[in-house]
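User: Fold this; tokens only.

Assistant: Input:
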Amino acid sequence: MHSTRRRTRILLAGSVAAAALAAPVGISVAGRSGAGARAPAAPTPEPSGAECRTSVQGSRVVAHCHNPYPSTDRVQLHTECRRWWDVDADAPPVDVGPGQTVRIDDRCWKEIGTVWVTHRVQGSV
């Protein structure tokens, strides 16, 4: 009787191990069989956002931003000064409407370290 219980336990443990090993393969095959059905394509967003160009001359920075798209873009110039004691600055945000160009400027007391422009698109007109 003991050998039958032992054999049953071994067969049961073996079947559980085989099922555990076969489950990931079955899931993978099931996922591949549905690969022929395609999900609907996500809508492509309309292009938006102003194109900005910055120029640095000494301690002054100027950004020109042009928005060719039908949505308004709120742009903001950020200036990081090179010297540790020079105060970094953020120019006030400016709305750039469709077809508009704006000029934003800022300065440091000494040299400019880095400058960048951030964008926040307001929505389609």
